[in-house]
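re: ur msg from earlier - yeah i can do the iron/sulfur cluster complex, just paste it... oh wait u already did. ok heres what im feeding in:
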Amino acid sequence: MNEKRKMRVATCSLAGCFGCHMSLLDIDEKLFDLLEMIEFDRTPFTDIKHCGPCDIGIVEGGVSNAENARVLKEFRDNCRILVAIGACAIDGNVPALRNNIDLWDCFQEVYLYEGGLEGNQIPNDPELPLPFDKVYPIYEVVKVDYFLPGCPPSADTIWKFLNDLIAGREPKVSYEMLRYD
Amino acid sequence: MNTTITIDGKTVPFTDGQTIMDAALASGIYIPHLCHNPDFEPHGSCKLCVVSVNGRNMTSCTMPASEGMVVASDTHELNEDRKVLVQMLFVEGNHICPACEASGNCQLQASAYYLNMLSPHFTHFYAPREVDASHPDIFLDLNRCILCELCVRASREIDGKNVFGISGRGIHTHLVVNAASGRLGDTDFAVTDRAAHVCPTGAILIKRQGYRIPIGKRTFDQRNISEVQMESSQHVEPDDERKT
Ligand code: SF4
Ligand code: SF4
Ligand code: FES
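and the outut:
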């Protein structure tokens, strides 16, 4: 068998909701076709802990804490092509609604003042990643090669986009495929 | 006097006093625009309508047509410039379309689709902006205001109420409500006012109306903004003005 080398694809969710990943899974039985063309590196679908050298990295979610930034840098360092998928990765989206609220006020509201939380404290274990002052789009942190908007992009859109990328074509997002909501 | 200009190689007639935009719309030629609405005096703030006139860039909504002008509008270069302008508007405000009631019916969003904007490109300002929910029937969310002043013009010229104004300088320029308290609830603004329906974005929203139109049936789900704006330049439908 002279099987072509499969493309290696990594995906991750930073400050995302996993909705973009769910929309990717919405290609349904075409997942079998996809797996003919690619193999997954680190993604929430595999057990690989760190992103190794890849052809394509797909990032869902904005950057809201130090761990997000670390993972994003690992993806940028290892992926030839980095794709921002979904509104959160592209503009921060709904999580960025916190950008105009003081972080300390947010924490107090959630961990101290919420009813029934007497005696609680704001988590401060070093295991926990420190949140950033704001939620940032990923292109404000690392260079991004392609953007696929949508909250989430539809399965058909993701399928078309991935096919272009895997075939080495410049991915085009047509009017029908383009939405921010 | 009836004479002609050319737009993208097409001969377009105009009458004295018409701008390039007026002549284009009357001939069925779409030039992207946000702050222009045929019912109001031109404003010239959004700059989306910039065209090349005899080789120089000018806002077509304010530039009077004159005999023999050679206008280029639908060029790759101008459309890329327009996309950059839309990107600037997106990062300047807080446009979180997935949580916006205007999504699908918004002219800013539809212009971005038309120009194939895939990301806002620039660093976001995430500027703190006010939400005013004091009025019983109408929201004012300045996070989405693009300072087109259509509400200012409509309130002053059509409703005769002067509810809105613009204040501040530079990046601090913002829409204000003309009441001692600065709150919309303390004005005589009404849902029946033209100014309540003229906003091209989701900055002025009627309460209890959100998310009524199913996805797929919203204004720009099926047709792009050039088709919708060309149609409405022939006849304006005031009760769903975000189409215009
Ligand atoms: S006003 Fe338009 S562009 Fe802004 S968030 Fe709402 S739908 Fe999006
Ligand atoms: S509130 Fe709407 S109509 Fe008024 S200036 Fe802002 S964007 Fe324009
Ligand atoms: S439409 Fe001419 S500047 Fe806005």
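cool cool. The beta strands of chain B are 2-7, 10-15, 50-53, 56-59, 70-72, 131-132, 138-141, 164-167, 174-177, 204-206. ping me if u need the other ligands too
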